[in-house]
Amino acid sequence: MQIIQYITAQSSLSEKSITNTLELLHEDCTVPFIARYRKEKTGNLDEVEIGLIVKLKEQFEALEKRKKAILKALKEQEVLTKELENKILNTSDLTVLEDIYLPYKKKRKTKAETARNQGLEPLAKILMSQRNDDVSFVASKYINNEITSEEKALEGARFIIAEWISERTDVRNLIRRELEHFSTINTKVKKAKKEDDSALKFKDYFDWSENLSKIPSHRLLAILRAEKEGFIRVKITIDDERVLEKIDRKVIKNNNESGAEVQLAIDDAYKRLLLPSLTTEAMNIAKEKADDSAIQVFTKNLEQLLLGAPLGEKRILALDPGYRTGCKVVCLNEQGKLLYNTTIFPHPPQQKTTEAAYTIEHLIEKYTIQAISIGNGTASRETERFIKNIKATKTLEVFVVNEAGASIYSASKIARDEFPDHDVTVRGAVSIGRRLADPLAELVKIEAKSIGVGQYQHDVDQTKLKKSLDTVVEHCVNKVGVNINTASASLLSYVSGIGPKLADNIVSYRNENGIFKNRSEIKKVARLGGKAFEQSAGFLRIKNGTNPLDDSSVHPESYALVESIAKDLQTKTQNLIGNTATLKQIHLSKYVTDKFGLPTLKDIIKELEKPGLDPRDTAKAFSFDDSIQTINDISTGLILPGIVNNITNFGCFVDIGIKESGLIHISNLSDTYVSDVNEHVSLQQQVIVKVLEVDLQRKRIQLQLVKK
């Protein structure tokens, strides 16, 4: 099959693995399911490798769709020859395909088309042959009412020749190579914007020049944003003289008058047709690469954030800090259910500190609070200090939680449906509390790009970004597993094989019939058929159910196998769980079949050792330096504690307890060369940093990593 050949040529994966994976995808299997439960069939491919097959499959299908459209258009024009058809069918590159089609593409009225209509194509052919040395005499034969001189005739013929040259694949590829390797991106500030205060953030690009192939993704995206906002002009340049000389060598055959006319046509084709088109193409390619790089950074950050350490099922008091409007306070039970909400005013202008402290003490006792969660927005530091000074909180851990996107959640339909009788402030405080208990379960309710852990996420291809982020969320949800009896519809919708509609149906069933007692009961959910059950069951957990395997990633299709193993060991299935000594006695080769190979058997034993083990760490409390309240308190040389709150290709940003995050440039992460920031730090990691520089005007802080 062509698709197999296409994917094999573009990857290092085996033909068998590709064939079997495509077969599973055709059967509507999801990537998480294939990676986890079909290892024998795929040759043990992981989610990244399966994802690559999916991506290449989509590329191939898009290519084939375009081929069909082009062939149809050529047939309608009655210009499709067998040779041209084979050329199109055998092409595996979209750019090459478009170049083949270019001469036949319907164009708007061009100078060349006008010249053809004036009957000048025969003259263009004579000139292009470059055998005639008296072009004026030849051109004089084409003078008529429309063409009043030899020069007008020659000019029209040159327009036709220029179009021919612009459609030559070899010429286009020559310029593409020059642009790919030697082009320069140049920027100039617009005079009218130079003194604009809002242009200050783009000051570095007021007069910038760099090789387009070497420019880092974040810099290109910053330049393009500055151009979009009207602060700078951007231009792509190459050595025109050198490129024209190379084109001349391809096209010019004779040093005569006809050759001179062709030379003029080459210059026109280059400046008017080729360079504008191909520099745009080069910029689009560079932008696409920058998008891919930025999206990759965002997806890595999002994965780390979603897999952030949960505190677990604790009774939490959460605060959304504020000055004038007060601090919103909510009390949540172990499952994140809202028990109580109120507002306290411990800060100016009300300054009701004593009253606020009494309220907190009372709530801690009444609702048996086990931990406190504080949002990291406005008045966060003051609220943290106020809470820690209350006697009743001395035995409790106090956490400052990143509240990015909480306001978006609080105004969303999901939040309105959850809390129809509460306003956005209460919903926001609930989200802050739930983020501490389980970041993954809460963050899936927010559009991923609104969480704020990427670089230039609003400037990249939004369709591609959403698709990549959805894939990451799906990966994280299925990696952790979901408690079907407590999960929200938002969380359930990302489980393999479920989706939004079935997620709603699961919640409805749960509300009407109570909790699920075993995985078999999941089949009773409306519209949840055999395929959906197969794809989802292994990722849905049932705690304290009738079958102990239901709280593990062992798939129901393997239950009989586990029971067979237990029977051979003369014990019961539940006695295998957590029994490392017994599990080590099992000879896996005895149980290998066509359906269950060693990879699956090893996964089952690993899961039985620690069923339902959460792969995430446990949340740890953290304190900022109390002496640092604003950027004015920062000075060179200070050593401060901080939390990594964003990672980019050029370094990472660290929250040091003030409004402005500091930047550890990639060069300040280590004494040795750093190629990947993620190899040195991770999102939400607690670090010690040293202040290198403070720019009060631009509100920028340069840091150095001292200790992880």
Automatic annotation (TrEMBL):
Checking InterPro entries in the record gives: HHH_9, NA-bd_OB-fold, Ribos_protein_bS1-like, RNaseH-like_sf, RuvA_2-like, S1_domain, S1_Tex, Tex-like_central_region
- Coiled-coil regions in this chain? 53-87
Q: Which SMART domains does the entry mention?
A: S1 (SM00316), YqgFc (SM00732)
Q: Which Pfam families match?
A: HHH_3, HHH_9, S1, Tex_central_region, Tex_N, Tex_YqgF
Q: Where is the signal peptide?
A: none
Name the source's superkingdom: Bacteria
Q: Report domain S1 motif positions.
A: 637-706
Q: Which UniProt keywords apply?
A: Coiled coil
Instruction: Identify the PANTHER family for this entry.
Output: 30S RIBOSOMAL PROTEIN S1, S1 RNA-BINDING DOMAIN-CONTAINING PROTEIN 1
What protein am I looking at? Answer: Tex family protein
The organism is Tenacibaculum geojense
